[in-house]
């Protein structure tokens, strides 16, 4: 009896631990729900739109502890994961990868030359793209928002919400939007005073 209680308690503790993200052959942490595409970004934008979603590029690199934290702490959180899955098509890019990419301006490059062209220096960097692909702008110029680096749950999730709600088209910048949402969460008792 005591043994079965201890075994059940051990399984409960293991179930409560954050999920460890799978690591692919390229050294990047993987999510089963990330989209695998031909990396033609204009086509990916169109595909996301046809699914009533927005395209976001997740630029990562092997050994990145912040990428690992994003996968294990943020993308494993059901509230965060479920919101992103329902509203965004995520395509992962390797900052130093050799896969072919077709930029929104039509230029063909490798992942590493595309990331260098776009000027992104940190991982993870999340690049949120418009609903309609531009034909004369590269990704860095077409992006409606960019989130460089690792953030806490609410900053991370609120950026996705702000983009989905097209906050970039309003007079409310992300920082004001985020502060307002945090106040609403506190008022609803979903956040402490931290």
UniProtKB/TrEMBL annotation:
Domain of life: Bacteria
Annotated SUPFAM superfamilies: Thioredoxin-like
Record carries keyword ATP-binding: no
CDD domains tied to this protein: SoxW (cd02951)
Stretch forming the signal peptide: 1-21
Keywords on record: Signal
Domain Thioredoxin-like fold intervals: 48-132
Gene3D superfamilies associated with the record: Glutaredoxin
Pfam families in the record: Thioredoxin_2
Stated name of the protein: Thioredoxin-related protein
Organism encoding this protein: Hartmannibacter diazotrophicus
Lineage of the organism: Bacteria, Pseudomonadati, Pseudomonadota, Alphaproteobacteria, Hyphomicrobiales
